[in-house]
Design brief:
Blueprint lengths: L2 E8 L5 H16 L4 E8 L6 E8 L2 H12 L2 H5 L5 E6 L5
Antiparallel strand pairs: 1-3, 1-4, 2-3
């Protein structure tokens, strides 16, 4: 069963440049991960500071591997403490 994450991250204005720079590598690395079907992070055209996030992975193992890698990456440090609002579907407990 595929796992899908939808939601957004709200970036404060004073961290915007750093986040935009770090996002380039984060997107590239995520899309290279085994099991990544799609990974999109786009700046919201109407809400300043909001980046809409949509991720799809082949299964729970691929999604969990992504979460682990992302949590240990420069992206985690760059976005530390930034509010996120996500809904995850298809993630069943083992």
């Amino acid at each position: 069963m595929t796992v899908e994450l939808k939601g957004y991250i709200t970036v404060p204005a004073d961290r915007m440049d750093e986040v935009k720079t770090g996002l380039v590598d984060h997107i590239r690395l995520t899309r290279e991960e085994p099991g990544c079907i799609s990974f999109q992070v786009t700046e919201d055209p109407t809400i300043p500071g909001r980046f809409n996030v949509h991720e799809r992975f082949t299964d729970a193992a691929a999604f969990k591997a992504h979460q682990t890698r992302g949590g240990q990456s420069p992206w985690a440090k760059i976005t530390e403490g930034i509010p996120r609002s996500y809904e995850i579907t298809g993630l069943e407990e083992d």
